[in-house]
């Protein structure tokens, strides 16, 4: 039910919002390191929702009852989930990079942030083969039943025959990767982002206090400093709170599943669905917290929307003008044809009154005069 109600709204807001965001961030005048990071964040969030789309469609009755969809979904579910998790992890680290970039801009205005190099992402590849889906054909091969389970579980408990018996080294790799993914992919970045943003607030307070002490004669400018600090503090607090609330529960659930319990209950499945929805909500709110809180970005965004609207309305007006011209020319032609037809009918009546008759000779029409006898 949650996927059927919340996901369509989250999907629409994320795709439309991030598309508009990219149209602004990728402009020639907006190209800098911070905006490139925000553009990468927008692309990562879009990718997460695209790869989660088949899972959402599988909750719909129309797709769930389709044998073709269920067969295809059984083969792509694991890989699409792995890609969604990978892009989600990438988005988390991009948020960390954005926070670090903002902190460096405030603390070292003339320092350029070094390029990032991604290394050793093999710990996140376990998603592709940690689960496997069993496809069972029932009802005389008319219905298909799909069951996706971890490869480390005992499949015989579910009435299924395992496709192979995983080795102890493979099971160890899966378990370590799950724990590493929870810590490196979510928990550690969440605390680093919180620390960086709290430190950023502290730097803003120090700069504002120095400005007040050194320039006591500023008057209204001092009030502007305080107002900017207040807005920045509220924005940073919203970013940290939203990021922590939406991302941390999923990591805790990962650890609970692997360390404390195997979590084969229906209650755990419902909680997992809620935490996944929280993660998607956080992706949806990224465009609001990181972009729309900037007055400059909002101004450029509205300017872009107005330009697109004018282009669309101009094209529509040209199309309507073209249609009107076609209708007008068609009306003129029909009027001309009706005038000619009326003149032909009039001349035909006049010839009948004068005693002319139309006769067919050898399949050719010709006029033959007939004299009236008295």
Structural commentary:
There is one protein chain. This protein is mainly alpha-helical and 374 residues long. The protein folds into 2 domains: 2-292, Rhodopsin 7-helix transmembrane proteins (Rhopdopsin 7-helix transmembrane proteins); 311-369. The protein is built from 9 helices and 4 strands. The chain has helices at 2-25, 33-58, 61-64, 67-107, 127-130, 168-214, 220-260, 266-292, 295-353; strands at 131-138, 143-150, 356-361, 364-369. The strands form 2 sheets. A two-stranded antiparallel ribbon has the order 1-2. A two-stranded antiparallel ribbon has the order 3-4. Helix 2 (33-58) runs antiparallel to helix 4 (67-107). The longest helix has 59 residues, at 295-353. The chain is flat, with a radius of gyration of 35 Å. The model is unreliable at 112-120 and 353-374 (pLDDT under 50). Residues 17-290 form the G-protein coupled receptors family 1 profile domain. It is found in: Membrane. Keywords: Membrane, Transmembrane, Transmembrane helix. Its main location: membrane. This is Bm4793, isoform a.
Summarize the structure.
This protein is mainly α. It folds into 2 domains: 2-292, Rhopdopsin 7-helix transmembrane proteins (Up-down Bundle); 311-369.
SSE layout and pairings?
Layout: H1 2-25, H2 33-58, H3 61-64, H4 67-107, H5 127-130, E1 131-138, E2 143-150, H6 168-214, H7 220-260, H8 266-292, H9 295-353, E3 356-361, E4 364-369
Antiparallel strand pairs: 1-2, 3-4
Helix pairs in contact: 1-2, 1-8, 1-9, 2-4, 2-8, 4-6, 6-7, 7-8
């Amino acid at each position: 039910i949650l996927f059927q109600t919340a996901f369509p709204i989250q999907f629409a807001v994320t795709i439309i919002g991030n598309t508009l965001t990219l149209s602004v961030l990728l402009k020639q005048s907006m190209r800098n390191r911070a905006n490139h990071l925000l553009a990468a964040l927008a692309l990562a969030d879009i990718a997460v929702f695209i790869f989660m789309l088949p899972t959402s469609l599988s909750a719909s009755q129309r797709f769930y009852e389709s044998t073709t969809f269920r067969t295809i979904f059984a083969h792509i579910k694991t890989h699409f989930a792995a890609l969604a998790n990978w892009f989600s992890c990438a988005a988390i680290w991009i948020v960390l990079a954005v926070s670090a970039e903002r902190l460096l801009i405030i603390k070292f205005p003339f320092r350029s942030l070094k390029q990032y190099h991604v290394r050793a992402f093999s710990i996140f590849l376990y998603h592709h083969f940690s689960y496997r889906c069993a496809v069972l054909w029932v009802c005389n091969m008319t219905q298909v039943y799909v069951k996706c389970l971890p490869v480390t579980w005992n499949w015989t408990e579910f009435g299924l025959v395992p496709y192979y018996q995983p080795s102890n080294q493979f099971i160890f790799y899966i378990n370590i990767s799950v724990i590493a993914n929870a810590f490196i992919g979510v928990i550690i970045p969440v605390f680093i982002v919180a620390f960086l943003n709290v430190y950023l607030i502290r730097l803003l307070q120090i700069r504002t206090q120095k400005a007040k002490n050194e320039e006591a004669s500023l008057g209204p400018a001092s009030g502007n400093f305080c107002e900017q600090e207040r807005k920045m503090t509220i924005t940073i607090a919203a970013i940290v709170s939203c990021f922590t609330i939406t991302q941390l529960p999923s990591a805790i659930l990962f650890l609970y599943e692997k360390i404390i319990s195997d979590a084969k209950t229906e209650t755990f499945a419902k909680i997992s669905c809620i935490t996944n929805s929280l993660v998607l909500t956080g992706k949806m709110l990224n465009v609001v917290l990181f972009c729309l809180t900037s007055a400059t970005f909002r101004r450029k965004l509205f300017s872009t929307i107005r330009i697109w609207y004018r282009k669309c309305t101009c094209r529509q007006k040209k199309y309507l003008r073209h249609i009107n011209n076609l209708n007008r020319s068609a009306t003129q032609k029909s009027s001309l044809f009706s005038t000619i037809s009326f003149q032909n009918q009039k001349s035909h009546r006049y010839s009948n009154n004068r005693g002319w008759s139309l006769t067919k000779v050898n399949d050719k029409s010709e006029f033959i005069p007939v004299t009236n006898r008295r």
